[in-house]
Input
Amino acid sequence: MIVPADVPLLRAARREPTPFTPIWLMRQAGRYMPEYRAIRARHGFLDLCKTPDAAAEVTLQPVDRLGVDGAILFADILLIVEPLGVGLEFAKGEGPVIHRPVRSVADAERLQPIDVDATLGYVFETVRIVTRALADRVPLIGFAGAPFTVASYVVEGGPSRDFLATKSFMYEEPAAWDRLMGILAGATARYLQGQIAAGARIVQLFDSWVGALAPADYRQFVAPYTRRVIDAIGTSAPVIHFGTGTSGLLAAMRDAGGDVIGLDWRVDLDEGWRIVGEGRGVQGNLDPAVLLARPSVIRERAADILRRAGGRPGHIFNLGHGVYQQTPVEHVKALVDIVHELSDRR
Amino acid sequence: MIVPADVPLLRAARREPTPFTPIWLMRQAGRYMPEYRAIRARHGFLDLCKTPDAAAEVTLQPVDRLGVDGAILFADILLIVEPLGVGLEFAKGEGPVIHRPVRSVADAERLQPIDVDATLGYVFETVRIVTRALADRVPLIGFAGAPFTVASYVVEGGPSRDFLATKSFMYEEPAAWDRLMGILAGATARYLQGQIAAGARIVQLFDSWVGALAPADYRQFVAPYTRRVIDAIGTSAPVIHFGTGTSGLLAAMRDAGGDVIGLDWRVDLDEGWRIVGEGRGVQGNLDPAVLLARPSVIRERAADILRRAGGRPGHIFNLGHGVYQQTPVEHVKALVDIVHELSDRR
Output
């Protein structure tokens, strides 16, 4: 199967002109969609991730239903920590729990390098199934969590608001932090390389919670490891480097790497792109809460973003974060159509 | 009692040179301090706010203990909504609950203007007691919640992560949103004027959660009401305009008003000040999580902030948000001493 290099999403990632602005949505495969809920009724979350046929089906659902310009692999950023032996569990309705969080030097010393090929082969199999099914329609977007965001779960033991355990650990035990981040960076690089080898044409690195950090902390404790991951991808696929709450971190994130920098909604797109610089693309940046409003509001806000992008090559439309589960499917479909219509340059 | 206009905090707020960089800390009076916990053992939270002698004692505790350059009134940003009749309660260990949240046009129509003088006199009494006790040592900082942040509690019914009800309400019912925000803006202006009349020499407007918004939404749905509050203060006292997660909103917040713009830790101070512009002061911006680390880390991070401020008139040192309750008191004291020592220009 050949995916032409000139599909809009890949062209935009390389800052080449496109006939319209490509759009995909974080969590476009998810709970807001009845087809997804039907499959989830038969599979637990981790079970679904580990069943390649089902994960591939979920990955493909929004491509036909919404007309988006890319399929995003169905998986979870924490799959990579399962082989670390920290006791990962997806507790029903409560999100991920890590039963043996890493909080001390001794905890960090017990960690072993992650054998990605031996433990995450089911993800590569999903990528292969999806790539075959997509043929040349739209590219598959692979992804992984960035080392900081994954480490934050490993240290906190689950989701966090203030990341106090993570920050204390990095301030107080920099050598142990380096060991944890080094293991995650190495495994993440290998994991993304494996997805690309299996058929992903572009990858997104999710540093979703990095916006909790001061820029000085980001540069010292995070950027070197993120850079290691992105450097390892090299030119094998474009990399979208994404986080939320990052309006003050954009220059530092750009310096850490990525062909495209993801912008959340907390910055005007033109201002965010100015900070990132014309040498990179940007992705974003509609507040996902706008999708709860009536289509006229969605249209107004999408038009404002496209106006700020000004049709310059290198803009991938997306939300600033994932689709909320309360979102009406028809609103999501309306956004995709609005972006295609308003950005039509043919 | 006369507080000379040339105490460092007030001079800095007016961008006049100071012998050292003044510092105060959000939540400097709070649970991290044993003296505070001792008083809280005898008073419920709302009861403490409404007992002027006790609230004044709590306000004064950190002035002597820490050597900070300002006292911040002990109160809560939600006191102003009690007279709205929405059923405010401070539930033990769970934060504020609003039992009858405003979610519809009918809910908003039922709201009555708030008679600040008739219902919040106890706060003005606390201000008078504190002002007398402080004499000419340091100024009292009055404060109020900004209309958006207060409205978010009134709509959500309590704290929120994503503010979906608030955003949906403002998108879908702009006239009802205007009514709610108008009532809050009018009452907040009167409330701050009352604090200034009672002795507060400077005030901070807390728009703590405004960083959840896209700049376009901020300009349309928030800035006009914030401006109304700040314009009403006029030249009667300097205004510090504060929010968190606002790295992409700083220019819009500056345009809404304030002599000093509060920066949280998610932006480099020099970059934040560049956005705000030299015509305003800035306050901030140490990550409060740094106070959990050993004093050598605190010193390094404080020095970085002072270096970025470069001794320019108009910098008030503060955390980027409130002191966490797990913080050792001696670390807070160490920060105050470090800032005074490193910024000494005498």
